[in-house]
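Bench notes, afternoon.
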Amino acid sequence: MILCNRGLAALDIGDFAGAIDRLERAATLAPSIPAIRHNLAVAYKFAGRPQAALAIFTSIGASDDAATLRADLFDHAGARAEFAAAGGKISANRLFVANYDPKIDETSLRALYAQWGAQFQSVTRRPHTRRSPAKRLAVGFMSPDLREHSMSAFLWALLEHFPRGDATLVAYANHPGADDAWTARYRTVFHKWRRTTREDDDTLARLIEEDGIDVLIDLAGHTVGNRLAVFARKPAPVQATWLGYGGTTGLAAIDWFIGDERLVPPGGEASFVERVWRLPHTAFAYAPPEGMPEVRPLPACARGHVTFGCFSRSIRLNEPTLRAWAGILARLPSARLALNTRVFEEDATRTLFARRFAEYGGDPARVDLSHTKPQSVTWAAYGDVDVALDPFPHNAGATTFEALWMGVPVVSKRDRIPLGRFGASILGACGLDDWVVDDVDAYVNRAVAAVSDLGELSKLRAGLRMRMANSPLCDHAAFAGDFAEALRSMWAAYCSSN
């Protein structure tokens, strides 16, 4: 077990090669212990070897994990079958994968989350009596990601400019492993910092109550390291979810989902267990990470052909999306498609994708598959992309911001609320509503039209970063003011309630 523990330690710090080496040796020495093989499969998954991971999960009967990997490997039908084989329990994996499944509509998705949340109906909620509308608010932020993480570009844009004269900010940091430079940066903007990985749910709920938190914000949803079971105990009078997940938590003890009107248009409330609070300008602000390269000239002008691209995670590459992309290439015989994501490190997965894309009417010879790293290399790779394509029914998030900052406009299709409205929210805040469409035919037509005039596309590319910088997406102070005002209004609504 020493080798296994060392492998897990390596996995915690992102040393996937070291984790695999130790766990492979441990599995050879103790082949009859499923837990070791399970950990090896997890290491394979994070190292970009999903089919190797899937083979192990399948051999040890880990249907839930196998289902998630099948979704990562462009097979949502297979994922549904695996979840069915795993039994009736609604796991975090099942909820997560359902967000991306093109066969699940908004109503069914909300019902699935509500069914998960029903398990907490018998949990005792903590009583609250303080109702002073004008008090200085104590605001808690709960997250497993207060470290280097893609969320940092958005959370920092809020926290650095949050108006502190009217609030005390408290961090509940639930990340495993050691702190890093981002953790140190976050510590500078909180009045109080609590590390919460060792507290059980009841203990943590009591600590939050003792801290006098008025508004508690979930930044994780159903991602790894979340503490939704703590929120179920209602340790703060007002509770909200924002940023870290993008959809409903299914938890009735969370009062608000924070979005905007494009993300959740009027009538979209039915997709949530929570009530919806719409910020006036945008649901997200963006602080471009340090080290992002300068925008390069439109590559089509030098190459003589157009390149579409998507750098989002592979779970979004489902049949409807791939068929739409195949249709775009069919209309533009010289165009190419560049896909850049972790699973394409594995030869077997590249072969699998080629077969899938051909099944959906595409020409795999016109698709370039890669996984670039570190992140700075991935940002630079946008220099080879003319137009980005947003997947559906679950749009991309961080990669859409990155594409725009690198001068690459994005074609997006509105889909289920709110997960299929990220593109509409982001592009709309940047004044690019005309890049958002409502059906697949319009999506294909918009992509084709986008590259019909390379002169206009080149001008848009050259000015897109400045356009974004001058938009609500990068007006951090205004966003933080809107956010703080929203929390104050939520508190006032609570104080005036019975």
